[in-house]
Design brief:
The protein is mostly beta strands. Helix content is 0%, strand content 63%. The protein starts with a strand and ends with a strand.
Length: 119
């Protein structure tokens, strides 16, 4: 029905930058909110950033001023620009998309991309 393809993770030194992308495809009528979550080993999955269809954003306190979420509606893609990365940002990052499809409204998750920040 709907597929999400993530890219952009990797290994970076503290203070470095990475940009994550998540492209949605399939039977999509409308994309509502889009977001990024992360899960570090031994910890619960947490919201990192989200953006509404109107462009309003919200961020976890731990990433405010360092991360920027954006979206390209024509490409059905959400981005996460991560600057000034810290070792504590190390986690698997998942995109999450609220989609209205031909089959109804549902949440979809990406497969996850590893972000590792070395000190």
């Amino acid at each position: 029905q709907v597929q999400l393809a993530e890219s952009g993770g990797g290994l970076v030194q503290a203070g470095g930058s990475l940009r994550l992308s998540c492209a949605a495809s399939g039977s999509i009528l409308r994309i509502n909110a889009m977001g990024w979550h992360r899960q570090a080993p031994g910890k619960q999955r947490e919201l990192v950033a989200a953006i509404t269809s109107g462009g309003s954003t919200n961020y976890a306190d731990s990433v405010k001023g360092r991360f920027t979420i954006s979206r390209d509606n024509a490409k059905k893609t959400v981005y996460l620009q991560m600057n000034s990365l810290k070792p504590e940002d190390t986690a698997v990052y998942y995109c999450n998309v609220d989609v209205q499809s031909y089959y109804g409204r549902d949440d979809y998750w990406g497969q996850g991309t590893q972000v590792s920040v070395s000190s």
